[in-house]
Design goal:
- The structure holds two protein chains of two kinds.
- By secondary structure, chain A is mainly alpha-helical.
- Chain A has one domain.
- Chain A is flat and about 40 Å long.
- The N and C termini of chain A lie far apart (53 Å).
- Chain B is built from eleven helices and two strands, in the order ααααααααααββα.
- Chain B is 58% helix and 3% strand.
- Chain B is mostly helical.
- The two termini of chain B are 18 Å apart.
- Chain B has one domain.
- Classes of the chains: A mainly alpha, B mainly alpha.
- At the A-B interface, helix 1, helix 2 and helix 3 of A face helix 6, helix 10 and strand 2 of B.
Chain lengths: 96, 288
């Protein structure tokens, strides 16, 4: 049986990198997003992160793994939040 | 571009970067003769022949690092040529007010009132989720089948979808300067990231790694261990083969993937940009 040693992979690093890159891309967006659309994006992002599951070899809650059957793709959620944040911090951006 | 425009800090940076790349690549080719070092793909194949955690990334950037670099370069050159041919006049020079003029052209935008219900309510969320999906792909590149190229294409698709749905004044309105910066930064980073491999192995673009935390000896002992537990060792290139415990880390592959992603985003979106904004009658070099 192959057991992947967990610590060396870094379960939090991809989440942070996705967040930072999301902020960078979010600053390229313009206009305003209604709060209803923001909620829809976050909800769909949460659903999608369940469908994508945690990246392979991730094993703990830090990496998004709740149980063997249920896990979240945290980089996807953090990227979504980063994009919305990047959009909101840009001049003229934000939610209505 | 004239030579005098390369004076100053920009010119120095460009000259130093080109010199480093030229010397490194040439000497790498010279040392290749009868002295080809095996990459790490073979170890990956032995490690996880059923799981393939890193095969694609190691093939692309280990054995085919130069090939992939040139491929991305071709895309970038294609983008520049497309902008020069199709978007003549969009390639502004210093001191010219080209951005506002182009953006102020009559939009072909679809008003949301006339959009189908599906597009009206789901186009923008899908664009945002596509961006997030692209970032998920690039951050998982070293442990899955994704990569920087795929990320760049996905995000370019988001840009195209946004423009198709909303027109020129779309929510994902990447500016020309940003796209050029993305492409140049990505390609430059990809190229220069070959330097660490060259310094340690004499081979340009060779995958190497570093123990990030042991390089910080001034930290209290408990802090690096906590960091190691939480953040792992993202840049360490390690292969541990022991009964029951196998692991491999990817070295600088994640950075190369991010660099390639930005290169592809800049290049392909720049091509879309040229098609979207199209022809400009203003001749180059003429002050508007």
């Amino acid at each position: 049986m192959i057991v992947i040693f967990p610590e060396v992979l870094g379960e939090v690093t991809p989440t942070l990198v996705a967040f930072v890159l999301g902020v960078i891309l979010g600053t390229q967006m313009e206009g305003k997003i209604s709060s209803r659309t923001t909620a829809l994006v976050l909800f769909m992002g949460l659903l999608a992160s369940i469908l994508f599951e945690a990246p392979i070899h991730f094993w703990s809650v830090l990496g998004g793994v709740l149980t063997e059957q249920i896990s979240f793709a945290f980089p996807f959620i953090s990227a979504t939040i980063g994009i919305l944040l990047g959009k909101s911090i840009k001049k003229g951006g934000g939610s209505e | 571009m004239e030579i005098k425009e390369l004076r100053g800090l920009r010119g120095v940076v460009a000259a130093v970067a080109l010199l480093i790349i030229f010397v490194g690549v040439i000497s790498s080719f010279i040392q290749l003769e009868g002295n080809v070092a095996r990459g790490i793909s073979e170890e990956y194949n032995k490690l996880a022949y059923r799981m393939a955690p890193n095969n694609l990334a190691s093939w692309l950037y280990d054995y085919r690092g130069f090939d992939t670099l040139i491929e991305t370069g071709v895309i970038y050159v294609g983008a520049v040529v497309s902008v020069m041919v199709i978007g003549r006049g969009l390639v502004g020079l210093k001191g010219m007010r080209e951005e506002e003029e182009v953006a102020a052209a009559p939009p072909i935008a679809l008003k949301t009132e006339t959009m189908p219900v599906l597009l009206k309510y789901f186009a923008l969320p899908v664009v945002i989720l596509l961006l997030a999906y692209g970032l998920l792909v690039v951050t998982s590149a070293s442990t899955s089948g994704g990569g920087g190229f795929q990320c760049g294409v996905i995000i370019s698709s988001a840009y195209l979808l946004s423009v198709v749905a909303y027109g020129r004044r779309s929510p994902l309105n990447m500016r020309k300067k940003a796209l050029v910066a993305f492409g140049a930064l990505g390609w430059g980073l990809y190229t220069l990231i070959g330097l660490p491999g060259y310094l340690t192995t004499n081979f340009w673009q060779y995958n190497v790694g570093a123990d990030l935390w042991s390089g910080l000896p001034s930290f209290p002992a408990a802090v690096p261990e906590a960091f190691r537990q939480i953040f792992g060792e993202p840049f360490k290139l390690a292969l541990h083969l022991e009964e029951g415990v196998y692991y491999a880390t990817s070295g600088i592959l994640p950075i190369i993937n991010v660099a390639e992603a930005f290169n592809v985003i800049g290049a392909i979106c720049l091509i879309f940009f040229a098609f979207v904004y199209g022809w400009s009658d203003s001749a180059e070099g003429v002050e508007k």
